[in-house]
Amino acid sequence: MSPLLDLLQQQEDTLNQMLALLEEEFNLLKQRKALALPELTEKKQQLLATLAQNDQAIASTLPDHQLQPELEPFRQRILTNLQSCQERNEVNGKLIELNLLSNRKLAAELCQLRDKNKLTYDNRGNTQPGKNGSLNIKA
Hints:
Blueprint: H1 3-30, H2 37-61, H3 72-116, E1 119-121, E2 127-129
Antiparallel strand pairs: 1-2
Helix pairs in contact: 1-2, 1-3
C-alpha cells in the first residue's frame, strides 16, 4: 500500500468513528442523558484533531494536489462520510437547543410555582409579592 492510500484509509476510518460517536450522542440526547455528553465531547475533539492531522498529511503527500484516478472512490467515500457527519452534528446541535429550551421552561415553571406560594393579596384583592415568609403565619 502506498502512504497516500494508508492516509486516505485512516481518514475514512476516523470519519466512520466520528459518525458512530455522533449517533451515540444523538441517542443520549433523545434519552436526555446529558451527563454523559462531556465524555463524548472530549472524544469528538480528539477525532477532530486526528482528522485535521490526516488532512495535513494528505495535503503534503499529494504532488501538485492531484489525486490519482484510482483513489477517487476513497475521496468520494470520505466526502460522503464528512457530509453525513456534518448533517448529524447539525441535528444534534438542534436537539441540544431544544433540550436547553425545555429545561429553561421547566425552570421558569418551577420558579413560578415557588413564587406563587409567596403571593399575598392587597386590600382590593389583587395579588402582590409577599414578604419572604417572615411572618410564618399558618392559616
